[in-house]
Each structure stands twice: as structure tokens, then as C-alpha cells.
Write a structure and sequence with these properties.
The strands form 2 sheets. A 6-stranded mixed β-sheet has the order 8-7-6-5-10-9, with no helix packed on it. A 4-stranded antiparallel β-sheet has the order 3-2-1-4, with no helix packed on it. The protein has 2 helices and 10 strands; from the N terminus they run E-E-E-H-E-H-E-E-E-E-E-E. It is elongated. By secondary structure, the protein is mainly beta.
Length: 148
């Protein structure tokens, strides 16, 4: 299941890295085809069902060197997760622990030191600044967000 805004980006790759059971292995890509909401990849060296089943539960990661360039105000999820989140007034709100993809916009799940998670919509009215090198996000908490 691709976790990218552009699944066609895999068409540009000649190989992938599969992380499974604390190891990784690079596989050349022979073929890619869509199947419902998934992508089916034929990998060189994975010649039968038994070899494919051995990779179940693995994670495919694309090295940053092969990642697509980003537009302004676009970020890789990997860069946002575990980011410190503060209010526009400097209040420490917690850590971004999950990104929920919805039809309209993403929602950032921010986990405070104590208490319940904050759900912050990833919209310009709420997300004021993102500083990837400092791993810090500044947000405006719209009225009612703490009450969800």
C-alpha cells in the first residue's frame, strides 16, 4: 500500500529497499502494476510465492536520494513525525506522532507529555510554520481544538 501522494513515482525507480526482520535488501524492480488501492511489484530475485510470502510484513523505503523533489510548503511525512509542536505563544503542545489522511486535509495527531492527544488539521489557518532542520512546528489552535 503506497503512502505517497503520487504512486506513479514508483515508475521512476529501478530498485527498492525492503526492510524486514531487522535486515534490509535491495531488489531490482522488474514490473509495477496497480491493483485496487495497492501496487503490485515484481522484484528480481523474488521468483515464487514462497519467496514473496517471506517478505510479508516488510516495509519498502525509498532512499531520500531517489525521492521526488517537493514543492513549497510540501513535506515528507518522515520529516514531520516526531517533530516538536508548539503554539504561536510558545506553549509546548507535544510531539507529532501520527498523520491521518482524510479526504479534505491531513490531520496531525499531537501527543502531549500528559493528557489526551490533540488533533490539528493540516491547514494554513492552523499550521503557521514548519522548521524541518529544527524539527519544530508552530501552530495556531483554533477555538475548540483542545476540546475534541
Amino acid at each position: 500500500m503506497p503512502v505517497t501522494d503520487d504512486p506513479s513515482r514508483f515508475d521512476l525507480l529501478d530498485s527498492i529497499d525492503v526492510y524486514h526482520n531487522s535486515t534490509s535488501h535491495t531488489y531490482p524492480i522488474e514490473n509495477i502494476r496497480p491493483h485496487k488501492t495497492l501496487l503490485v511489484l515484481r522484484l528480481k530475485g523474488v521468483e515464487d510465492r514462497t519467496a514473496a510470502e517471506a517478505l510479508v510484513g516488510g516495509v519498502i523505503k525509498v532512499p531520500r536520494s531517489k525521492a521526488l523533489p517537493l514543492e513549497d510548503d510540501e513535506y515528507y511525512q518522515k520529516d514531520l513525525l516526531d517533530m516538536s509542536v508548539v503554539s504561536e505563544h510558545g506553549e509546548e503542545l507535544g510531539t507529532l506522532v501520527q498523520i491521518i489522511e482524510t479526504g479534505a486535509n491531513d490531520v496531525y495527531v499531537v501527543r502531549p507529555q500528559s493528557g489526551k492527544d490533540l488533533l490539528i488539521p493540516a491547514i494554513k489557518e492552523c499550521i503557521l510554520a514548519i522548521n524541518v532542520p529544527e524539527s519544530k512546528m508552530t501552530v495556531h489552535l483554533m477555538k475548540g481544538l483542545r476540546d475534541l
